[in-house]
Write a structure and sequence with these properties.
Blueprint (H helix, E strand, L loop, with lengths): L7 E5 L4 H12 L3 E6 L2 H11 L3 E5 L5 H15 L2 E6 L14 H22 L3 E10 L12 H21 L5 E7 L6 H5 L2 H14 L8 H14 L7 E4 L7
Parallel strand pairs: 1-2, 1-4, 2-3, 4-5, 5-6, 6-7
Helix pairs in contact: 1-8, 3-4, 4-5
Length: about 250
């Protein structure tokens, strides 16, 4: 019998990067999985990658109407779920002096507001004893140039984890976070030109105590631990960062 046989799990932002790696791990271990994304190309790629056992749904984490539609779809497909994994997120590398309102709002709409209301709308469908796991970032405890608005959006999300853990405790739902450091998830390549991404990755690797980027699967394993094994953890944040925010 597979480890997560029969578990019903939603992975937002599951069409690429850490979310996709998490969905693959769940499927390999027997879970029923629905992944979301908003890019048609990424969704088509995910369908091919994950195979027929995954439900791949277009849903924009920044749209409350689409979050409502997602909740209805989840209820129709699964009835109740065992875990909600919030992997949908957005990164922008912008100097403080050049930050615009549109970029700032976009980061908070996806990373903070979208995560908050996704949990609000799907929490009624989480079975007693289930779990919510969100992805924060080591940027929420470090001063890193170029990502001040992103860091603030993730710090707000970290605070929400504590508050929502308290509010959902009477229903037996645990709420925890995984805080990744530099992960080779393709985010840098999406956010900047290739040569700049290569230079940034080299610098970040040099600065990391373990002298490397983490892999999406390493974050996925931490999410599985918090979702299913860490039954005495709620409101916590588990760093997966090669020691970057610890040493």
């Amino acid at each position: 019998m597979a480890r997560y046989d029969g578990k019903r799990v939603i992975v937002t932002g599951g069409a690429s990067g850490i979310g996709l790696a998490t969905a693959k791990l769940l499927l390999d271990e027997g879970a029923r999985v629905m992944v979301t994304g908003r890019s048609d190309a990424a969704l088509e790629s995910a369908r091919a990658d994950l195979g027929p056992n995954a439900l791949v749904v277009k849903s924009d984490a920044a749209s409350l109407a689409e979050i409502d539609a997602l909740a209805a779809r989840v209820k129709s497909e699964f009835g109740t779920i065992d875990a909600l994994l919030i992997c949908a997120g957005q990164t922008r590398f912008v100097p403080f002096e050049q930050m615009t309102e549109a970029v700032y709002d976009g980061l908070f709409d996806v990373n903070t507001k979208g995560s908050y209301f996704t949990i609000q709308k799907l929490a009624p469908l989480i079975a007693n004893g289930g779990a919510v796991v969100v992805i924060t970032s080591i940027a929420n405890v470090m001063g890193i140039p170029m990502i001040s608005a992103y860091a603030a959006s993730k710090a707000a999300l970290r605070s929400m984890v504590r508050s929502l853990a308290r509010e959902l405790l009477p229903r037996g739902i645990r709420v925890n976070a995984v805080s990744p450091g530099p992960i080779d998830s393709g985010i840098l390549e999406k956010a900047m030109p290739k040569d700049a991404a290569d230079r940034t990755k080299q610098q970040m690797s040099n600065d990391n105590p373990m002298k490397r980027f983490g892999q999406p699967l390493e974050v996925a394993k931490a999410m599985m631990y918090l979702a299913f094994e860490a039954t005495y953890n709620t409101g916590s944040e588990l760093a997966v960062d090669g020691g970057g925010a610890q040493l």
